[in-house]
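Re-running the complex after MR caught last week's input typo. The corrected sequence lines follow. Everything else is unchanged.
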Amino acid sequence: MNLRFRMFRHLPVVGVLLLGAVPARAQQQLLVPMDDRQANALKAYGLVFNALRDGNKAEWLLNYRGGSFLLPDVSDVRKRATLDGISFQPISAPDVAALRTEIAAANMDVVSLERAPKIAIYKPLKSPPWDDAVSLALKYAGIDFTSVYDEEVMNGDLTKVDWLHLHHEDFTGQLNKLYLGFRDTPWFIEQRDAQLATARKLGMPNIPALKKQVAERMRQFVENGGFLFAMCGATETLALAIAAHQTDIAGSFADNTPVDEAADQKLDWDRSFGFRGVHLEPSPFVNSMSDIDGHQVNVPGRRQPLGQFSLFSFSAKFDPVATMLVQNHRNVIPDFYGVTTSFTRSTIKQGVTILAQEEGAPWAKYLHGDYGKGSFTFLGGHDPEDPQHNIGAAPTDLALHPSSPGYRLILNNVLFPAAKKKPLKT
Amino acid sequence: MSPGCQGAGGIRGTGNRVRCTADAARWTAGDRRQTAGAGRRGADGRWSWRVACAFVALLLWGASPLHAQATSVEAALTKALDLEGANKCREAIPFYRQALGSEDPVGAVLGLERCYAMVGRPDSLVPVIDSLLLRKPTDPTLRTVQLRTLSTIRRDDDLRAAFGQWTSLVPQDATPYRMYAQVLLEIGRARAVDSVLQEAARVLGSRKDLASEYAQMQSALGLWIPAARSWREAAETQSYLEQAAVFSLMPVPAALRDSVREIYRELPVTLGARRVLSGLELKWHAPRTAWDVLAELSPTDSVVAAWLEFAQEAEASEAWLTARDAFARVATARPKDRSLPLRAATVALNGGDPGSALAMLDRLSGPGDSAMAATVTLLRVRSLGALGRAREAQKELSAREATLDPEARRGAMRALAWAWIRGGDLEKARVALEAGGPNTEEGERVAAWLSLYAGAFADARRGLRRTDEPNNDVVTAMAFLSRTRVEQSPAAGAAFLTLARGDTSAAARAFEVVANEVKDAAPFLFGLAARLYATRAVADTAHAVLLWKLLVETHADAPEAAEAELAWARVLRQRSDAAGALAHLEHLILTWPQSALVPQARKEMDEVRGMVPRGGIVAGVPDTCSMPPAGAGSGSTER
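Corrected-run output:
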């Protein structure tokens, strides 16, 4: 045996020794539990999002301990978790392997998260920074986003983002029918004048015409592969505005012409998101847009009390998207009002997935559907931790609700576009 | 007692007692008339005959079936009340039902309402009420119970029909509308109340009698501005609603409070409106504004009474200086009441303003009673002592010592001892304390402080350990004593004395110097010195930062290190150095993850990063995704 051979003969031993010398930390990962052991579930989403943004990979363990995350054990991730008070536990390679075996044998799955999506929130520049639940959640979790409004949308800025959030905007252009109650208040006048100015700047005669165009751009955004998440009144009014491309659904106080008497029949639901066979509320005196909303919070006599809604359980391996959207440490969540609180079942299109509903009630709370190459998710209600939100009420301080199950639903939507698409099993 | 009553002995019912009393009154009146008649005629025999007849008649009435029935009904009510009182509602129900046969069945009906609710059978009351209403169709109590019951069992159509039936029987009466509105409010149907009240206003031609219902409805709907106006209207005529108005309007969001203030400041200026506004300001944690609202009024008797009530409330909520101003104003309006300046001086002293306390006491002239003289002396000595005018305090005490009883004298001597402490003369303080007489708990406490100031830490530790004073001085002293094993350090004692004398700047320097002498408590003393440097009185944050840096870098194992880092970060935040503040907060969390200050550091880090709202309302546009849109639905409200 020559010297050279003798040297190589010992290589496997050296290799094993070298492997042993590699710090154990390099092999282990960080498990971020999302069950009741998690001290700050909302910031955990920010931790994952920012890890992805920094070029790391992550895994979402669907249905495992409330939808936990597996992250690489790198100093930046540890540091951020410690700073934000996020519970995590180092987990060795053999334990990760055991965990994967456990997941493979149950209604659980592992989804790779690869890239932090680019996020935009549609809201006016002069709106208060705490006026919608998604802004609150993203800011609290430390997730970056850009703001877009009518001009940016019309200028094509939606092509720069993956994920668009809408909240309480009235895409029918009727400013949530607040004209009668607030027409003399300075903020209402300012809002109306600003939107009217934008409409005229973009060559449109009034706000309903402007919003109809904006809604159409959003439809195209989803059709071309964008993810749209809407809450509160934006869900209903966006769908109405898209469906009303051939008819007038705005009252005369908004566009000087009355609502088309045959508007119900002229609404084009094949073109719109989520709903069908909707009856419009034509009266400017009734603070409701249509019969999509089951709760009708602002209509005396129609208002329905709040209950609790239950999240559906989906097959993680066969229905990963729906499973991602309902990951939570609670299955039953107290309901909360919004301009649109819920979605009447009779108006929901076939093929739309109901993610959450109130048992025994004729409405659903949380919907998801595919449209073109993209998808939309609608969550009714305004603020999960402020069930009866009132004008002038103080903004919700999420530091007081660090593991809010309602807010987790919003943040599930933020991470879901980061998931690597798997080939469909069905 | 009348013979009839004697005949019904043993019956305990209230109704029976009323009836017996009435019988007795009739008997006595008859007796007087008979006596007068007999006197005129001088016919004693005929008088005796009439009395005998009456007695027999009463006995016969007592034995009649009618009386027996009334008695049994009353007995049943009494029995039912007793059973209900003993939490035996199920057993009480048959007796209440038996008592429904009385002339006035309201007591029995109310009892049944309570008991049926307790046993979970509120629906059983419906046929009972229906049959009683055939006898008394317009009885407001029966009608109200009917509405409540139908509402409880959620028979909304019947509820609406019952209300309609009542209004048709008494079309010009506001009571049905008021009661129906209250029933609807109780079940949270505030929107429906709107329709009811509008209908009432139309039918009655005015909403005057329904102002409080309007106010409640609007408050329930969050229509704060109309609610404020309605509450003002209601409380003007019914002053007992003032407290209800305050509690109802208390949740008005901060952004709308100015509008509410304007409504209550509108002309005409009335005491009722001002009392409500003042109450609201107190609830909104603005006691000074609350007082200003009342202080603007001219001092009539009722206004002065309101001032006094306010002063007492402010005193109870420890808004000392506001209470002082209110008591002083009342004292001016009621110059003969010598207790008022004393109360003003007391709260002024509690509020840390001995100067104004002394000025109040100076307004007291002429002899008062001995108890008041003692109080005045004590307050003057305390005030002078707090101002560091120990000699004047001594003189004051010497001049008036004779007016004091032993307990008051001990108190005055302790106050004098504190005066000498603040004057820096520990020896005289000790003499004053000893002159106060035998040791008391309070005296031992002062002695413990004297030991601390003299640097005798063993005695100070023993004495202060027993104290239950809830103030920062004790906490600081005990924290220091628990950190050191040194038994004697006049220099450290002198530093504490300097602090007690109110010379914060010199105390900060002294603690910094002493830290090098009392080495085992050095981190604590550096931390204390830094805190004093950073106070508004000294405002030497640059020096404070030096000490915090020293603590963080060279005393990292001490508990004061994390505290120093947090304080340092706060100073940087105040200077708008967000990056610097963040660096220190992050360093704190990562270096001392087990520190009790970590949650606070995280909270402040979130604020610096803009992750959470800083509290209150962000100025600008109110949230338009809100309920309810005031007025927007008023044209379509449904009952």
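None of the earlier attempt is carried over here. The radius of gyration of chain B is 37 Å. The longest helix of chain B spans residues 14-41.
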